[in-house]
Amino acid sequence: MNPYALARLRAWMENHGLERFFVQQPENFAWLTGGGDNTVVTFRPVAAWLEVTPEAVRLHASQIEVGRLLDEETPGLEVLRYPWYSPPAPLGPSDLEHDLTPLRLVLSPAEQERYRALGREAAMALGESLRFADPGWSEYDLAGATSEELLTRGIQPLVLLVAGEERLFRYRHPIPTRRPLGRLFMGVICGRRHGLFANVSRLRSFGHPEANSLNEQICQVEAAALEASRPGATLGEVLEQMRLAYRRIGRAEEFENHHQGGLTGYRSREVLARPDNPTRLEVGMALAWNPSLPGAKVEDTFLLTETGLENLTHDPAWPALEVAGRTRPGVLEG
User: Fold this and answer.
1) Is 214 left (phi over 0), alpha (psi -120 to 50) or beta?
2) Cβ count within 10 A of residue 334
């Protein structure tokens, strides 16, 4: 169990006058158990849930799932089993009706360490697949290679986008197709391990004339977001700096064409940044900004620390450029 999360949940229960609370959303199950997974079908529907009281935590699971869950996800918990053909009636107060997102946003030191390991390996996995790719590959080929690199590291690719040259300039959420990669292509992942998400985007070029200039432009927008991401700032304030940055590079209209990211953690987007969003940044929160243009996108996962932003998905083997005093990913050429 995650004692930090359990203490926060019990304090919240006391404030709300709840003697019993059921947790079944995968993001909350992972948060409360220190990285456990209560799913079989990817992410949803769930296969088990937790009952939390001031004195105990109990696992509710079907006979199918009990053995694996006790061995691998929630060892030592008291279990209430039910037949696979006869699930119990709807639960009492639960995270289906109460949003626990605010409780999850500030990560404990142990969660931060898990995040650092995940971030390094997720960035390496995407980088390896892109380095190995060839312009004649299809988007499916690159998606398959990326999935292999992730899964061999125990990372689930819950979001996996690939755009070749033909589609990169047209779509912001390019689900992979049979189209060829061509001279410029992008890989995007939201990879999950032990409940946490690493969000990474990378570009590779084989002599595309616009690749580097577009990447440099979008890194200027991201730089405004990173500079504004300080304790006490609101998501809305950071987003406004991004809007102004799009104007400065002469692409004001692109702010409207895709969301810009926000807080991450136990979901790829724990809180999506929207205009005037009042959520204040705190030390221990994780962020993933993803400004984009037709033909370019930049994204890494950062941890907000006492001394500034720590890039959790930095890949030292990936080409880099310096933007506003920070090392940012370049375009891999050739």
Assistant:
1) alpha
2) 6
Task: With H, G, I as helix, E, B as strand and everything else as coil, classify residue 156.
Answer: strand
Annotate 46-59 with b (16+ C-beta within 10 A) or e (fewer).
bbbbbbbeeeebbb
- What per-residue confidence (pLDDT) applies to 40? 87
CATH number for the 109-333 domain, one of 3.30.10.20, 3.90.230.10, 3.40.50.360, 3.90.550.10?
Answer: 3.90.230.10
Q: Name the residue with tokens 């999360």.
A: 5
- CA distance linking residue 310 with residue 156, whole number of Å: 23
Q: Where are the domains of the chain?
A: 3-103, 109-333
**Alpha helix segments (H runs only) across the chain:** 3-15, 26-33, 66-68, 101-104, 109-132, 139-151, 165-168, 211-228, 235-248
Which amino acid belongs to residue 225?
A
CA pair distance 257, 217, nearest whole angstrom: 16
Answer for the pair 306, 318: CB distance below 8 angstroms, yes or no.
no
Structure tokens at 48: 């088990």
> Which tens digits make up the pLDDT trace of 263-302?
999 999 999 999 999 999 999 999 999 999 999 999 999 9
On average, the pLDDT of the chain sits at: 96
Q: Does residue 333 have a pLDDT over 90?
A: yes
**In angstroms, what CA-CA distances link 83 with 43, 52, 124?**
22, 22, 42
pLDDT at 46: 84
**Quick one: three-class SS letters along 22-67?**
EECCHHHHHHHHCCCCCECCCCCCECEEEEECCCCEEEEEECCCHH
Rounded CA-CA distance 234/188 in Å is 26
